[in-house]
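ok so for the tutorial part 2 we go from a plain amino acid sequence to predicted structure tokens. step 1 is just haveing the sequence, like this:
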Amino acid sequence: MAVFDGVHYTLSPSLPLSRRHELASILDLNGATSAGPHTHLIALGGSYSHHDKQSAESANTTLKVVSDKWVDRSIVMGKIQSEQYYSPDPAMIFSGTVACATDVRI
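step 2 — the prediction. this is what the tokens look like for a chain of 106 residues:
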């Protein structure tokens, strides 16, 4: 089974053209399709625009808005990652970040 089976994506204009081509190739080769109805809007992390928000709201109330890092991480892990951790909204500054502490004394 392909990583992105069942994913119907649309790419945000906030992504540079070269990145849009790269993502489209990765997604298509791994089972996703750009045909509607769309399930995912993929935007540039940290640049979730008003236009992206309007597109998501008007197109589909169940449209999942994720950053482009969601695609990269899903490929690395070999399965779709939870969308909630890959928000492109700049207000979600630590979206997609994992931190750990070592040598902490109690």
